[in-house]
Amino acid sequence: MQDRSSYPTKRIVNGGSRVLQCSAGTKFSMLDASTLPTSLNSDAVLNTLTHSTPETTTHGFNLNDFATKLVLADLDPATAKLAIGFLGPFLSAFGFLFILRIVMSWYPKLPVGKFPYVIAYAPTEPLLIPTRKVIPPLAGVDVTPVVWFGLVSFLNEILVGPQGLLVLLSQQVN
Protein backbone atom coordinates (compact mmCIF):
# COMPACT_ATOMS: atom_id res chain seq x y z
CA MET A 1 0.00 0.00 0.00
CA GLN A 2 1.46 3.33 -1.02
CA ASP A 3 1.40 6.21 1.42
CA ARG A 4 1.42 9.08 -1.09
CA SER A 5 -0.60 12.23 -1.01
CA SER A 6 -2.64 13.26 -4.03
CA TYR A 7 -1.23 16.77 -3.55
CA PRO A 8 2.42 16.83 -4.63
CA THR A 9 4.99 19.03 -2.93
CA LYS A 10 8.23 20.47 -4.25
CA ARG A 11 11.41 20.92 -2.25
CA ILE A 12 13.46 23.95 -3.13
CA VAL A 13 16.89 24.49 -1.56
CA ASN A 14 18.16 28.09 -1.34
CA GLY A 15 21.42 28.58 0.52
CA GLY A 16 20.73 27.99 4.21
CA SER A 17 16.98 27.48 4.05
CA ARG A 18 14.74 24.86 2.51
CA VAL A 19 11.29 25.66 1.17
CA LEU A 20 8.38 23.26 0.79
CA GLN A 21 5.78 24.31 -1.75
CA CYS A 22 2.43 22.55 -1.81
CA SER A 23 0.29 22.23 -4.92
CA ALA A 24 -1.86 25.17 -3.82
CA GLY A 25 1.22 27.40 -4.11
CA THR A 26 1.74 27.96 -0.39
CA LYS A 27 5.41 28.02 0.56
CA PHE A 28 6.66 26.86 3.93
CA SER A 29 10.18 27.88 4.87
CA MET A 30 12.32 25.54 6.96
CA LEU A 31 15.40 27.25 8.34
CA ASP A 32 18.73 25.52 8.64
CA ALA A 33 20.06 25.49 12.21
CA SER A 34 23.34 27.06 11.07
CA THR A 35 21.53 30.23 9.94
CA LEU A 36 19.82 30.83 13.28
CA PRO A 37 21.40 33.08 15.89
CA THR A 38 23.16 31.37 18.78
CA SER A 39 20.84 32.77 21.47
CA LEU A 40 17.29 32.14 20.40
CA ASN A 41 14.99 34.81 21.79
CA SER A 42 11.69 36.23 20.60
CA ASP A 43 13.34 39.22 18.87
CA ALA A 44 15.59 36.95 16.79
CA VAL A 45 12.67 34.70 15.85
CA LEU A 46 10.55 37.74 15.00
CA ASN A 47 13.36 39.14 12.82
CA THR A 48 13.77 35.79 11.04
CA LEU A 49 10.02 35.48 10.47
CA THR A 50 9.73 39.04 9.18
CA HIS A 51 12.56 38.58 6.69
CA SER A 52 11.67 35.05 5.56
CA THR A 53 7.93 35.43 4.98
CA PRO A 54 6.63 37.46 2.04
CA GLU A 55 3.98 40.14 2.59
CA THR A 56 0.77 38.15 2.17
CA THR A 57 -2.76 39.43 2.64
CA THR A 58 -5.90 37.36 2.48
CA HIS A 59 -9.20 39.23 2.67
CA GLY A 60 -7.51 42.18 4.37
CA PHE A 61 -5.71 39.94 6.88
CA ASN A 62 -1.94 40.36 6.91
CA LEU A 63 -0.18 37.07 7.65
CA ASN A 64 3.04 38.84 8.67
CA ASP A 65 1.12 40.71 11.37
CA PHE A 66 -0.31 37.40 12.54
CA ALA A 67 3.18 35.87 12.77
CA THR A 68 4.41 38.96 14.63
CA LYS A 69 1.57 38.79 17.14
CA LEU A 70 2.13 35.07 17.58
CA VAL A 71 5.79 35.57 18.46
CA LEU A 72 5.01 38.53 20.70
CA ALA A 73 2.68 36.29 22.72
CA ASP A 74 5.87 35.28 24.56
CA LEU A 75 5.07 36.68 28.01
CA ASP A 76 7.60 38.39 30.17
CA PRO A 77 7.69 37.37 33.86
CA ALA A 78 5.87 40.49 35.08
CA THR A 79 2.96 39.92 32.68
CA ALA A 80 2.83 36.25 33.66
CA LYS A 81 2.62 37.23 37.36
CA LEU A 82 -0.19 39.65 36.53
CA ALA A 83 -2.02 36.92 34.62
CA ILE A 84 -1.58 34.55 37.58
CA GLY A 85 -3.02 37.24 39.86
CA PHE A 86 -6.18 37.43 37.75
CA LEU A 87 -6.57 33.87 36.46
CA GLY A 88 -5.82 32.07 39.73
CA PRO A 89 -8.73 33.53 41.73
CA PHE A 90 -11.02 33.56 38.68
CA LEU A 91 -10.52 29.85 37.92
CA SER A 92 -10.76 28.94 41.62
CA ALA A 93 -14.02 30.88 41.99
CA PHE A 94 -15.49 29.22 38.90
CA GLY A 95 -14.39 25.82 40.20
CA PHE A 96 -16.20 26.50 43.46
CA LEU A 97 -19.30 27.69 41.58
CA PHE A 98 -19.35 24.49 39.53
CA ILE A 99 -19.09 22.43 42.73
CA LEU A 100 -22.14 24.35 44.00
CA ARG A 101 -23.90 23.61 40.71
CA ILE A 102 -23.14 19.90 41.10
CA VAL A 103 -24.76 19.94 44.54
CA MET A 104 -27.66 22.04 43.24
CA SER A 105 -28.29 19.48 40.49
CA TRP A 106 -29.13 16.93 43.20
CA TYR A 107 -32.14 19.07 44.16
CA PRO A 108 -34.05 19.85 40.95
CA LYS A 109 -36.86 21.75 42.76
CA LEU A 110 -34.54 24.53 44.03
CA PRO A 111 -35.70 28.05 43.17
CA VAL A 112 -32.60 28.99 41.17
CA GLY A 113 -33.92 32.50 40.55
CA LYS A 114 -33.93 33.35 44.27
CA PHE A 115 -31.05 34.96 46.19
CA PRO A 116 -28.64 32.38 47.50
CA TYR A 117 -28.95 30.05 44.50
CA VAL A 118 -28.73 32.70 41.80
CA ILE A 119 -25.13 33.43 42.85
CA ALA A 120 -24.04 30.04 41.50
CA TYR A 121 -26.70 29.79 38.79
CA ALA A 122 -26.26 33.08 36.89
CA PRO A 123 -22.51 32.92 36.07
CA THR A 124 -22.44 29.21 35.22
CA GLU A 125 -25.65 28.72 33.25
CA PRO A 126 -24.39 30.47 30.06
CA LEU A 127 -21.61 27.85 29.90
CA LEU A 128 -23.86 24.91 30.74
CA ILE A 129 -26.63 25.58 28.19
CA PRO A 130 -24.51 24.90 25.06
CA THR A 131 -22.78 22.00 26.81
CA ARG A 132 -26.13 20.34 27.49
CA LYS A 133 -26.79 20.36 23.74
CA VAL A 134 -23.60 18.38 23.20
CA ILE A 135 -23.83 16.18 26.32
CA PRO A 136 -27.49 15.46 27.16
CA PRO A 137 -28.45 14.30 30.67
CA LEU A 138 -27.52 10.66 31.33
CA ALA A 139 -30.39 8.72 32.98
CA GLY A 140 -31.90 12.02 34.10
CA VAL A 141 -28.64 13.26 35.67
CA ASP A 142 -27.10 16.49 34.36
CA VAL A 143 -23.36 15.82 34.09
CA THR A 144 -22.39 19.13 32.47
CA PRO A 145 -21.37 20.82 35.77
CA VAL A 146 -18.99 17.89 36.37
CA VAL A 147 -17.54 18.30 32.86
CA TRP A 148 -17.01 22.03 33.37
CA PHE A 149 -15.53 21.50 36.82
CA GLY A 150 -13.04 19.10 35.25
CA LEU A 151 -12.16 21.60 32.50
CA VAL A 152 -11.75 24.48 34.94
CA SER A 153 -9.63 22.33 37.27
CA PHE A 154 -7.48 21.22 34.34
CA LEU A 155 -6.96 24.82 33.17
CA ASN A 156 -6.20 25.90 36.72
CA GLU A 157 -3.55 23.21 37.09
CA ILE A 158 -2.01 23.73 33.64
CA LEU A 159 -1.84 27.53 33.88
CA VAL A 160 -1.45 28.49 37.54
CA GLY A 161 -0.68 25.23 39.33
CA PRO A 162 2.70 24.61 41.01
CA GLN A 163 4.21 23.55 37.68
CA GLY A 164 1.81 25.60 35.53
CA LEU A 165 2.83 27.38 32.37
CA LEU A 166 2.31 30.87 33.75
CA VAL A 167 4.14 30.00 36.97
CA LEU A 168 7.12 28.73 35.02
CA LEU A 169 7.06 31.85 32.81
CA SER A 170 6.95 34.08 35.90
CA GLN A 171 10.08 32.37 37.27
CA GLN A 172 11.95 32.76 33.99
CA VAL A 173 15.20 34.77 34.18
CA ASN A 174 15.88 37.18 31.33
Automatic annotation (TrEMBL):
InterPro entries the UniProt entry points to: CCB3/YggT
Keywords per UniProt: Membrane, Transmembrane, Transmembrane helix
GO CC terms, sorted: chloroplast thylakoid membrane
Superkingdom classification of source: Eukaryota
Membrane as UniProt keyword: yes
Spans traversing the lipid bilayer: 82-107, 146-169
Pfam families named in the record: CCB3_YggT (PF02325)
Protein name, UniProt field: Protein COFACTOR ASSEMBLY OF COMPLEX C SUBUNIT B CCB3, chloroplastic
Species for this entry: Senna tora
